[in-house]
Amino acid sequence: MSTVSVELVYRGIFQRTLARNICRGIVFAARKENKVGIAFGRYGDSPERNGIPAKQFAIVADTDEELQASMALYEPTEVDVTIALDDSLCKGVESWAWYGLQPINKLTKKDGTLLITSLLSPEELLKHIHRKEVPYNIALVKGAASFSGLWVFKDDHTDVRVLGALVKVCPQLVSLEAMEKMIREQWKDELKVTSARTSYERVQIRRVEPGEGNPEEPYRFELPKWQEMEEGIIVRGIPQGGGFHGGEGGYQPGRNPYFKKFTTRTMRPVIDFEKCTKCTLCWLQCPDTCFDVTPDGFYDANMEACCGCGVCEAVCPVPDCIVMVNEAAFDSNESQYEMWQRDKEGYRTWVAEKISLAKSERRSHGFQYRGQYEEELAAMRKEA
Predict the structure, then answer these.
(1) Architecture of the structural domain at 4-208
(2) Partners of 83 in the beta sheet?
(3) Which helix (H) or strand (E) holds 358?
(4) Does 1.10.260 match the CATH number of domain 230-257+267-360?
(5) Closest CA to 120 of 52, 204, 16
(6) Which of 76, 273, 326, 384 fits a disulfide with 157 by CB distance 3.0 to 4.6 angstroms?
(7) Mean pLDDT per 10-residue segment, the chain (384 residues)
C-alpha cells in the first residue's frame, strides 16, 4: 500500500488560511499524477483561539481503496511528514482537543521528516524538540513564522515555499513538476512557481539520531480507569489560591493543574523588576491571570500560565519594563522573579540581552511601527 500522510501543525486563527492552502495544494498536486487524496482538519469543531495549536492533515494514495483504508483510522499513529509552521511549536503542542503536552514529532514515523519554517539552525531547534527512539529528519524552510489573522492572509509565499520543500523531503508524495503545475493553475502566479522551485533547491535537511534532542519527559498525567469513574458528571472546582510559594504577603491564584497555556505562546514577557513601579496594571489587565503577586509587591508572570498575548507590555507605563521577546530565545519556564532574587547582577545582564534581541528582530505578530507589514511583505517576496 503506497499511502503518504502529512500532518500540519499551525497556530489557530493566525495561520488557518495558510494551513488550508498548503493541505489543499498537496491534494491538487496529487491529482495531477492521477493519485487520490483528501485534506481535512483533525478537529473541525475545535475553537481556534489566537495562537492555540491546531492540526490539518493531507493523505495521498494511489487508489480509492488505499485512501479509504487509511481514512478508516480514527486516530493516526504515524505520518510521513510533520509540518510545523511556527518553530516555537517545537517545544511541544497542547491543543484544545487533549490534555497534556505532545512532542511536535510524536507522529513522525521512523525515517520520516519534521519540516519547520524557521530562521534557527537544526541544532538550536533540537534543544527544544523531544527525543525519539527512532531516527528521523529535520528539514528547514528558511523564514520567519507567517502570521496574519482571522480575516486576512499574509501572502508572503510561505505556502508555496513549504510545498516546494515538501516535494524534496518526501519525493514519494508527488513530483516537483506536478507541484509546479498545480501552483501555476491554482495561484496563476509564475513568481510563486519560482518560489516553490527555489525552496526545493535550498531546503536544509539534517538527520536526527535516536537520543538527540530535549531529554525532558513531556508533561503527562494519569487518566482515570473505567472502574474509577464516579457516578454522574463531576467538574472539580479550582481553588481560589493561596500564599506565594508558602510565603507571607504574596498571592498566587489557583490554576488548572492539567492545562498549561504556554504552548500557545510565540513571544513571552521579559520583566525588568528594577524598573517596575508596582502600578498593578499588568496584574489587573492580564486576561489569563498569569501574574503572581510576590511577597514584596512585585508581579511575576507564571510562564506555564502565560499565553504570550502581550497585553502586559501594552499597558505597562514604564518603557522597557515589560518587553515581549521571541519564545525561541528561552529554554525553560523558570520564574523570572526567582532568577532576579538569586542573582540581581546576572539578571540585569540577562534582561538587557533579551530586550536587545527583541529590538533587533521581527516580532512574530504585532508590529513595532506603522508600515512594517508592507516592508516585511516586500522583503519576503524579494528573498523568494
Answers:
(1) 3-Layer(aba) Sandwich (3.40)
(2) 8, 115
(3) helix 344-360
(4) no
(5) 204
(6) 384
(7) 88 89 96 93 60 88 86 79 95 72 93 96 95 97 86 88 98 96 96 96 97 86 76 71 60 75 87 96 91 92 89 91 91 94 96 90 61 68 62
